[in-house]
Amino acid sequence: MSIALDIGTSRLRSLRREGVELIGRSTPATFSLIADDPSSRGLLTRAELAFATGEGELALVGDAALEHAAAFRATPLPLLPGGMVPSDDPPARQLLGTIIESLLPEAEDVGSPCGLILPVASMTDEASAEFIARLVRMRGYEPLPLTETHALALATLSAERFSGISIVMGAGGCSMSLIHRGRELAGVQEPRGTAWIDALIASAGRRYAHGADGERYLDTESVRRQRESLADPLTRPTTDFASRVAEHYRELLHTTAREFAASLRRDRLGRFETPLSVVCAGGGTRPAGFAALLTAALVAAELPFVLGPTKLAPCDEYVVARGALIHAELNAVSLAAA
Prior knowledge:
Layout (H helix, E strand, L loop, with lengths): L2 E5 L3 E8 L2 E8 L1 E6 L2 H9 L5 E2 L3 E5 L1 H6 L8 E2 L11 H14 L8 E6 L2 H4 L2 H13 L2 E5 L2 H9 L7 E6 L4 E7 L2 E8 L3 H11 L3 E3 L5 E3 L1 H9 L11 H27 L9 E6 L8 H11 L6 E6 L6 H19 L1
Parallel strand pairs: 1-8, 8-9, 10-15, 15-16
Antiparallel strand pairs: 1-2, 2-3, 4-6, 4-7, 5-6, 10-11, 11-12, 13-14
Helix pairs in contact: 6-11, 7-8, 7-9, 9-10
């Protein structure tokens, strides 16, 4: 059995095929710590909420952390801060292992392929990548890493013969890749995404929240909700908040596009027979005006080929995981043929 595991900084997803049916599982990449006392345990038990225990603390994970942390005056915290596995936080590492175990059923055949998507920052952090790979192997799978942009192209560019520019922008990063006939020829991964935008705005506005332990945290969650509720297009902001969001988007897209163009020139890539379509996915690509802002950044970067139309991938949270599953299944077919 092949499977896909898409690990993002804001959400983790798995996708597998059973017969003709696709089975998806998803959970937020977050946890909350609350005091381990009889009152807290009683409330959690009556609410029938699962929790993990630690040294003087109880942990809510995933949806439970997002939905119920406020009731305990706790703050939801990222399992993968900055897109990396925290080396100095054993509880977070243990909770990450628990989540991955819940997303990956034990493999029927040891060594079954698992198309693995890592957060942008973890792709260049050897310790994070190896820790996650080890968790996957513990479930009986062989991890097959690929970039989220490669996976997106496999899932969405069949009509274009799996060729085009693939772009993913999420909470933890912004990535651009050149895909030609299903192969990734070049790509860049900028480890800044919408979470970086939220942190900048929270810091500039001195927006903080306090956890049950009394510690102060940047209140990026309220910024995220405000940003995602904006009605203004990124190209025509009408408020100070919307203008700051658009400014950070513009900076990030132009920086990533320039890095992408530089990588293409280094590898002397270009001169394709037909214009290359652009496909985008990820939560960061959903605001009105994103496509226009992206097109302006790509044009300004002077890419060495003609661009075709820009399209948004279907609003499907498993679209990247579907590409990773295709990658795993193709690998399984190759192994069987060999």
